[in-house]
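Q: For a teaching session next week I want to show students how multiple molecules come together into a single three-dimensional assembly. I've collected the sequence lines for a complex. Could you give me the predicted structure tokens for the whole thing so I can convert them for display?
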Amino acid sequence: MALESVTSLSPSVGKSPWFWRRRGLTPYLFFLPFGLLFLLFFIAPILYAIYESLFRSQRSGLGLGAPTINFNGLSNYLQVIHDPDFFAGVGRVLLFGIVQVPIMLGLALLLALLLDSTVVRFKPFFRLAFFVPYAIPGIIAALLWGYLYDPGLSPIVKGVSALGLGTPDFLGVQTVLWSIANIVTWAWTGYNMLIIFAALQAIPTELYESARIDGASGWRIAWRIKIPLVTPALILTCIFSIIGTLQLFNEPQVLSTISNNIPTSYTPNFYAYYTAFGNNNYYYGAAIAVVLALVTFVLSFGFLRITQRQAGV
Amino acid sequence: MSQRTASVPILTAQELVIARQRPRRFNLESIGAMTLLVLFTFYFLVPYFWLIVSSTKNAGDLFGTFGFWFAPNFNLFSNLQQLFTYQDGIFARWLLNTLLYAGVGAVVGTWLSSMAGYALAKYVFRGRNLLFSLVLGAILVPTTALALPLYLLFSGVGLTNTYWAVLLPSFVSPFGVYLSRIYAAAGVPDELLEAARVDGANEFRTYTIALHLMIPALVTIFLFQFVAIWNNYFLPLVMLSDEKLFPVTVGLATWNVTTAGTSKFLYGLIITGALISTIPLLAGCVVLQRFWRGGLGAGSVKG
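A: Of course. Below is the structure for the complete assembly, covering every listed component.
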């Protein structure tokens, strides 16, 4: 088939536009459409945000006249670094990540190993069932769980209290963070499981067939052979989870409509959004967004570096 | 490394065959594993089951009857009718908007990614390593962090609150470039490209030949982009203020904010709307399951 298409090309010789004939220029031409948009919608906003974050909008006197926009140097950043609301938010998502990411990835690994093992039947069904939440948009998942937490609507709350076990409060000061963790775990475990499962399937069976013949148990094979070989996939899922955790927005935003325990600075991303659009302070919002992106990049890149050195992958 | 990547789909098939040939054993281990899987199936499916059940209830039954089972009155069709007529049928428009954003965004994004990835994989040129490092670094920059600065940039040129505000940023997929580079490096032999050139094909024709071999990668990139845009909430929320331009995610969330203040009537609409909005992707996942696995594998082996 490849040969056919190659020979059919011959008549077009000589008609090629000049820029498709100069080999030196070609790779740049191929990269150009993506590169141009990448520059405009990826690099430029980052630079623009950094630029904006150096200014400040000030109203004089009674605040009736048009605000003046002053160059502010790095003082927006100084303010971010000393902003207790921002730090509380970062601390909150870090605590969230330290607890939720290991649980979610451990669960995803366990389910992937089970689906890869020989002792399980109906594998396609389970695989699909675990993947269902991924096909549900994150904001819809948050709405859905919000209803399952809402005391007025929730069959869980009603069921538990009907059994005489008290009324669970999913939206309380102490509990709401873990209610969010549950939504995230529900939504993303199946996706992570699929990435790990795909890596498991790529392991040549000869690698552990002999261990099996030698009488090694399924768990031993999993621990000694399979898990080390899927470490790159685990690292990948972990990095995506770190990024996702630091950007938490959908769930707190949706739950804040039914809970009084989610202030507008609950997560850093939520804080940046409200600073910019709720308080119309774009400049300070931009500074928060830049710091958050920097923290995210440093953490995910640092994690990548450390794990690469340790695992040699 | 790249060789392993190339062989992912083949090994997957082999694995499946071997798995089928193995004798099925029933013992304590098997029972334990199955119990665990069934338990988690409940965890993952019960909320969705609640959504299905609730979409068949009227406003009274939604609050008055047990949530995990159907009410005596079956109201799905009247809910649907209300959903698609409320506010002059704006929900249908939201669905079409989402389809437009995800469809056009994913097609263009995949095409741009395929060209950029092909260039990075198959040519040696000055600045190649720098460009690839930039693309890799961009994968680690969360798109939500970009939304706010993008809004500021777009409002400067009057692009906010237009279809373009959501479409243009979704054309850029660094992860797509990364995937297509891996596939092109592993799946497109240099000999084939040389043969095409010897036969007089220009560089663009040579690329279109390579594209045939990259089809599995293209499907994967397309699906990734499509789902990412379909599920996106933050970017359109930031960019759009005209309800007529909303995708379904922003639309339903807006209704949700309204219910917090006033009408219980909207609960039913949101629940039915949420159910409808999940159907296209679920159907797509079931149909395209095979493509998903091969593609995800290629991304993860490389780490």
